Amino acid sequence: MRRFIVGLLAVTTLALAAACDPKDPTAGGQPDFVPAPAGQSTPASASSAPEPSVAPSPSVVPSPTKKPTSSPSPAGCPQGEYQKVVEQALATLGGYGTVTVDGKQSAADCAAIKKFQKRFDIRPVNGKAGPLTRGVSQRLLKSKPSSCNAGNALTACIDLTNQTTWIMSGGKVVYGPTVTRTGMAGYTTPTGSYTIHDRQTKNWSTDWDVWLPLWQRIVEGKGFHTTTTYIHNTSIGSHGCVNLLPGDSQKYWSTLKTGTAVKIFGRRPGT
User: Its annotated pathway (predicted)?
Assistant: First the structure.
């Protein structure tokens, strides 16, 4: 009788152990691990793979990856609304690297536009062909050396219409064109032929209480000098002076001399 009871307990225990395994083949599931046939090693993924710290919830279905609405911008540069116009301008101006005129941003286009923006202090330098980048490029393209009537003498040319300036010698452009900002409404920069005089590395303006770096007087109290504000802020134009970017101002200072001819022509928009 005792032997019969012990045997009955053993059978019951085995039955309970099998029922606790959710992957028991007899319960209609699949086992987590099937022993390898004799003579074969056990796959590492089955015997030694660590368990995840948090098991994924079977009720959470990963959302599908959304397709981008447009192609990603190469080299981190956004494509501007004037992409092709700026590409064409830079290809014509030259000196900014390889540009493909197709209206599509590329890594090379991005680098060229950034170089152009840095050269003319267009902010931010982000490679985007926006309105300001387009505007500056078109102003440079429209600046014609023939409008200056410089002859063969060393001459500083100031185009009020396009708000640009350049230096000529021997009938050829030797520097520029580059951007400038001249007199605003009520303080227009006068047109005509003049010469440089009264050069000072730093001139104090008694009228406006401000230092004017690399000052080169052209006529009356008006002359070339390094801009003291953001040159592309046209709402606060000069009081008749010819504002220059720092690098351009240095070049004008080292190239022009007392007595150098200056030709001012055109008319600034809005004046």
Answer: Cell wall biogenesis; peptidoglycan biosynthesis
